């Protein structure tokens, strides 16, 4: 979409505000590609624009990154003054920028397609992985069972989505100890019921698990 102003006076606050507002949604004076209009407006600045016009400051710095020959090579709409001089005398209905209407429509269509494709791609991205921190109390049958053997058995259980953590030995009663061990599981990959079955599968060592 082209800037509504036919000409931007670098010393006119109203022109600068209008141009700054235009650059909120568009990269250049005539939409999404640099044209001779950008080169013309740029040439009208004797110095960098005031910082209170941040969008113009960004645009000015970007346009300034091209050398003069590159700017001369830009196509697109002519400046307002040039177009007016070239128009037939008395032709009040002459559309200065009508020739770009189809280009603007095509650019808008492409922009919308890209936005749609981006939204679809973003919606397909996997969400955060749900994880749970689980602490198990594993109890032996009696005080004759070595808790280290129980821990070896528990840690031997391996599967995708399961990570064993720290452990410690805690007293129960009458000289009997239990193993307390923690783990982190991915909820979609590992169920606590399955894990408890794997732990208690060694019936010679383990009486129960909580």
From TrEMBL:
<dbReference type="Pfam" id="PF00736">
    <property type="entry name" value="EF1_GNE"/>
</dbReference>
<dbReference type="InterPro" id="IPR001326">
    <property type="entry name" value="Transl_elong_EF1B_B/D_CS"/>
</dbReference>
<comment type="similarity">
    <text>Belongs to the EF-1-beta/EF-1-delta family.</text>
</comment>
<dbReference type="GO" id="GO:0005829">
    <property type="term" value="C:cytosol"/>
</dbReference>
<protein>
    <submittedName>
        <fullName>Elongation factor 1-beta</fullName>
    </submittedName>
</protein>
<dbReference type="InterPro" id="IPR018940">
    <property type="entry name" value="EF-1_beta_acid_region_euk"/>
</dbReference>
<dbReference type="InterPro" id="IPR036282">
    <property type="entry name" value="Glutathione-S-Trfase_C_sf"/>
</dbReference>
<keyword id="KW-0251">Elongation factor</keyword>
<feature type="domain" description="Translation elongation factor EF1B beta/delta subunit guanine nucleotide exchange">
    <location>
        <begin position="131"/>
        <end position="210"/>
    </location>
</feature>
<dbReference type="InterPro" id="IPR049720">
    <property type="entry name" value="EF1B_bsu/dsu"/>
</dbReference>
<dbReference type="GO" id="GO:0003746">
    <property type="term" value="F:translation elongation factor activity"/>
</dbReference>
<dbReference type="InterPro" id="IPR014038">
    <property type="entry name" value="EF1B_bsu/dsu_GNE"/>
</dbReference>
<dbReference type="InterPro" id="IPR036219">
    <property type="entry name" value="eEF-1beta-like_sf"/>
</dbReference>
<dbReference type="InterPro" id="IPR014717">
    <property type="entry name" value="Transl_elong_EF1B/ribsomal_bS6"/>
</dbReference>
<keyword id="KW-0648">Protein biosynthesis</keyword>
<dbReference type="GO" id="GO:0005085">
    <property type="term" value="F:guanyl-nucleotide exchange factor activity"/>
</dbReference>
<feature type="domain" description="Elongation factor 1 beta central acidic region eukaryote">
    <location>
        <begin position="96"/>
        <end position="122"/>
    </location>
</feature>
<dbReference type="GO" id="GO:0005853">
    <property type="term" value="C:eukaryotic translation elongation factor 1 complex"/>
</dbReference>
<dbReference type="Pfam" id="PF10587">
    <property type="entry name" value="EF-1_beta_acid"/>
</dbReference>
């Amino acid at each position: 979409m082209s800037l509504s102003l036919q000409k931007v006076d670098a010393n006119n606050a109203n022109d600068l505000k209008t141009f700054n507002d235009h650059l909120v949604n568009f990269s250049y004076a005539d939409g999404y590609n640099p044209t001779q209009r950008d080169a013309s407006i740029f040439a009208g600045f004797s110095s960098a624009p005031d910082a209170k016009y941040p969008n113009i400051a960004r645009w000015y710095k970007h346009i300034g990154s091209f050398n003069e020959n590159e700017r001369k090579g830009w196509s697109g709409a002519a400046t307002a003054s040039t177009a007016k001089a070239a128009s037939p005398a008395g032709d009040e209905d002459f559309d200065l920028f009508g020739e770009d209407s189809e280009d603007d429509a095509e650019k808008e269509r492409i922009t919308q397609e890209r936005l749609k494709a981006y939204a679809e791609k973003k919606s397909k991205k996997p969400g955060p992985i749900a994880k749970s921190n689980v602490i198990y109390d594993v109890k032996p049958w009696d005080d004759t069972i070595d808790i280290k053997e129980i821990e070896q058995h528990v840690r031997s259980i391996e599967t995708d989505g399961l990570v064993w953590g720290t452990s410690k030995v805690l007293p129960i009663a009458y000289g009997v100890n239990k193993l307390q061990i923690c783990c982190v599981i991915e909820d979609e990959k590992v169920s606590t019921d399955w894990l408890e079955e794997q732990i208690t599968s060694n019936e010679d060592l383990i009486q129960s698990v909580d």
